[in-house]
Amino acid sequence: MAGPVPSLASVPLIEVLPERYRTAVRDLCRTADDLDSHRPPTDRGGWHWYPANAVPPSRHDRGISHLLLDTAVTVHDAGVDWLELTLDIAWSPASNLVVSAAVEVACWCAQDHNMHPVREAQWEVATAGELVEAFAAAAATVRGWLSTGPHDPYTWRRQAGLPDASIS
Ligand SMILES: [Zn+2]
């Protein structure tokens, strides 16, 4: 993993993205800048990338998420309890790319799962044009969650039927 850097423009996307997606770089940076401008003041921001995953995963280790790029928008951070909105690009099992947006909350189950994605949207993309559109759609999804909330992890967990922290 490399990063974080404050702006997607500082990520060497040309080295990370498969060749057929590289014409998407400028549009991806524009979308990322727009998302960065909507981050809450408490969010540290930043983008990570994964140079070791630049080649497609081999058949035997499919099923694991092979990230190329990701960021998280921290909406709530009370140390042990938190709410993050994530945006990432990873390999799909078919060796295309898949763009994902998710709402992630801290786990309060008796057995610790660390994190639960309580909302997730994914777009599999085969071309640079599709990647541009999907990345914009994913960023718009994250901005939508940012503006509508909920802005605390408790409400998301309740809605997902997950155990909650005892905060009475
Ligand atoms: Zn759990």
Written overview of the protein:
This protein has 168 residues and is α+β, with helices and mostly antiparallel strands. It has one domain. It is 27% helix and 29% strand. The chain has helices at 13-16, 25-37, 128-148, 153-160; strands spanning 2-5, 47-49, 67-77, 82-91, 97-106, 115-125. The longest helix is centred in the C-terminal third of the chain and has 21 residues, at 128-148. The protein is globular, with a radius of gyration of 16 Å. The mean pLDDT is 93. Bound molecules: zinc ion. Zinc ion binds at residues 107, 109, 113, 116. Zinc ion is lined by residues 107, 109, 113, 116.
A few lines on this structure:
The protein has 168 residues and is α+β, with helices and mostly antiparallel strands. The chain has four helices and six strands. Strands 1-2-3-4-5-6 form a six-stranded antiparallel β-sheet.
The quaternary state of the protein chains shown equals single chain
Straight-line distance between termini: 39 Å
- Total beta strand runs: 6
Shape: globular
Question: Can you tag this structure with a few keywords?
Answer:
4 helices, 6-stranded antiparallel sheet, binds zinc ion, 27% helix, alpha+beta, 168 residues
List the helices and strands and how they pair.
Blueprint: E1 2-5, H1 13-16, H2 25-37, E2 47-49, E3 67-77, E4 82-91, E5 97-106, E6 115-125, H3 128-148, H4 153-160
Antiparallel strand pairs: 1-2, 2-3, 3-4, 4-5, 5-6
Bound molecules: zinc ion.
Zinc ion binds next to loops.
